[in-house]
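hiii, so i know i said id send this last week but things got crazy w the move. better late than never?? heres the sequnce for the chain we talked about at the cafe, plus the structure i predicted for it. fair warning i was half asleep when i ran it
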Amino acid sequence: MTIKAVFFDAGQTLVHPVPDGAGFSAVGRELGFEISWEAISASNSQMYARYNEYYENDPSFWDDQSRARAVWVDAYTLLYQLLGTGDKALQLANMAYDFYFNPGAWYAYEDVEKNLADLSARGLKLGLISNWDKSLVPVMRDLGLDQYFTIMISSTDVGMHKPDAAIFHYALGQLDVLPQEAIHVGDHLTADVQGALDAGLHAVYIDRYESHPEYGLAPRIELLDPLLGIIEQLD
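okay and structure toks below
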């Protein structure tokens, strides 16, 4: 069956933030803390482990803006505690959230705009499905990527999250396409790849940082360039 729509995840699929060292150290300087990139790098894994613990236990926090913020602020608070900021850790964590979940902190990967333009020129409907807060659309507008998408769905805006099938089916309904007529591209094996497959869509795993080179349950790419060829094969 012909592919009519292509959905994308956002973070680490189409866009990436400024390096953690730059962001967290810049926030720290606002309150007089000089924090080295090396110190941030040494503590990053514990911060992301805290976030992943929340996500693995119950990813439904992505359904709600305040809950999503609370999870990230808790993870950022742990980071700043590890960095020795004492009773300022929570304040810095809230500042870091406001920094990262806003336009200006995100950049598009170099291969993104050309490939979105090529897919759009082929008559494919493009959509965005992301576990993100209400800053998703402003971020995409700031990067000039919004022009390529018919729909941009943030989990907190619709009260649904990946990998639940509901958010994929909602997106399909918005574009009036069947699951087998759509493909979803993302970097998270559970939220994006397995979630899309379970919802009946085709899936492509984009592994920009070579995290799982052995993965073989769906097409695996490291850049978006091979995507059009994959779609043509499906057609």
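btw The first helix runs from residue 20 to 30. thought thatd interest u
miss u guys!!
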